[in-house]
Design a protein that fits this description.
Immunoglobulin-like, 3 domains, elongated, 4-stranded antiparallel β-sheet, 34% strand
Length: 259
């Protein structure tokens, strides 16, 4: 529809080809179209189904001040958590993506100095949608001996870093980037349920996975070491009479400042 004065746009294959595509017609009532083309070697009639797309505008801001955040990394994921594309926000804090109608998407935004976060893009027919991606500034408690984060939880019997754990570890990464001489020891602890040997191995895997995540974010491996303590150093020494709350306090990660 060029009635509004806009210019025609070549959409490329398979919509427009280098062959002779002509005599396009579209039935508005039935939402179906036809065109003639020799793209198959002969002049044939092809059915045309309309493309429905939504232009999603993401605006990244500081959640506390409302300030625009340029150069933030913004990814869009489909409903199977596959990353479709990643771009940096412009000087207006904006990133624009074209997605399909009637499908849900998720936007992930991150920037140094801020907690990464995810934002839902609800399914719609568009033509536009806006996502306000407000990121919280990283606020970390740093004592003389320790960097204190929220608890880093793991799935039962697993050592992979969850998305929630990654958000917390990103805070540690930021502190280490701001203090390039800082050296950290990551210690992982379990509660006292299960055998000593099993808990020691599990906590060691978790501690090493934590350190590897930190290294993957650009921190030199010489600045972070990892040690699994199992149930050797409980925060609450409650023995066989631990409550669920005490067990939870003992299942913890610590980030000690070595240097």
């Amino acid at each position: 529809d060029l009635s509004n004065g806009s210019e025609a746009v070549n959409l490329g294959k398979p919509v427009n080809t280098e062959k002779d595509d002509f005599a396009f017609t579209f039935n508005e009532a039935k939402k179906v179209g036809f065109l003639s083309s020799n793209r198959g070697g002969n002049d044939d009639i092809f059915a045309v189904n309309p493309i429905c797309g939504v232009d999603v505008m993401i605006v990244v801001t500081d959640a506390k001040t409302g300030a625009i955040l340029a150069n933030a990394s913004v990814s869009i994921l489909d409903d199977k958590k596959n990353v479709i594309a990643t771009e940096m926000s412009n000087d207006k804090g904006e990133v624009k993506y074209r997605v399909e109608c009637d499908r849900p998407y998720v936007v992930q935004a991150s920037k140094d100095g801020y907690e990464g976060n995810s934002f839902a893009v609800t399914s719609s027919k568009g033509p536009t949608a806006k996502v306000d991606a407000a990121l919280q500034p990283i606020d970390v408690i740093v004592t003389e001996t320790e960097i204190i984060l929220k608890p880093i939880y793991f799935e039962y019997d697993k050592s992979n870093i969850t998305q929630e754990g990654a958000f917390e570890l990103d805070k540690l990464v930021q502190v280490m980037k701001n203090n390039d001489k800082m050296v950290i020891l990551a210690k992982s602890h379990t509660d006292n349920r299960g055998t000593d040997k099993y808990n020691l191995r599990l906590s060691d895997r978790r501690a090493k996975a934590t350190a590897q995540y930190i290294i993957s974010k650009g921190i030199d491996a010489s600045r972070i070491s990892a040690k699994g303590m199992g149930e050797l150093e409980p925060k609450v020494d409650c023995g066989a009479a631990c409550t669920e709350e005490q067990h939870a306090q003992n299942r913890r990660s610590e980030f000690l400042i070595v240097k």
